[in-house]
Amino acid sequence: MREHDVKEILIDKKAIAERVDALVDEIVAAGQPDRLVVIGILKGSFMFFADLMRSFYRHNAHPHIDFMTLSSYGAGTVSSGTVEIIHDIRENLTDATVLLVDDILDSGRTLAFTKKLMLERGAKSVYSCVLLDKITNRAVEFEADYAGFQIDDLFVVGYGLDYDNKYRELPHIARVNFH
């Protein structure tokens, strides 16, 4: 493991909370589908996903939920280029509107793969919502429908994001500085 520190806070918990509520306002303003299925991509999205779901309550919206565990990083800090399904959803997606929730949009491979898969499984439409959007690192053409914050090409942790399975518990987003 490389020497590192995580002292530099980029986005504090208050800014995250305000942006999560604003994202749900945007999602609901786009229209209430007959059947909305919100799918969290684990592990990194779990805090963001939970806060999004709690915010839906303010709009009297009651989406179905499910989770997928996908891997494209392993223990590294750079995407391997291959997306692997570790744990799949159980929800029937036939004629559903799907909202994919992920922690960070980086290469685009994971969300592009998952969107295609959900459409193949019968979803009427598929949208994506990410906490962080690293717009400089796309390996495939993909843009999030809803994005919390744009960030530079930095390695970040906290609020569910990790470095070697550490720092997920931080209530904010912090930069990992490698020495």
From TrEMBL:
Pathway: Purine metabolism; IMP biosynthesis via salvage pathway; IMP from hypoxanthine: step 1/1. Pfam families: Pribosyltran. Gene3D superfamilies: 3.40.50.2020. Residues 12-163 form the Phosphoribosyltransferase domain. It is found in: Cytoplasm. Its cofactor is Mg(2+). GO terms for molecular function: glycosyltransferase activity. Its EC number is 2.4.2.8. Keywords: Cytoplasm, Glycosyltransferase, Magnesium, Metal-binding, Nucleotide-binding, Purine salvage, Transferase. It catalyses: GMP + diphosphate = guanine + 5-phospho-alpha-D-ribose 1-diphosphate; IMP + diphosphate = hypoxanthine + 5-phospho-alpha-D-ribose 1-diphosphate. Its main location: cytoplasm. InterPro entries: HGPRT, Hxn_phspho_trans, PRTase-like, PRTase_dom. PANTHER family: HYPOXANTHINE PHOSPHORIBOSYLTRANSFERASE, HYPOXANTHINE-GUANINE PHOSPHORIBOSYLTRANSFERASE. Belongs to the purine/pyrimidine phosphoribosyltransferase family. This is Hypoxanthine phosphoribosyltransferase. It comes from Pontiella agarivorans.
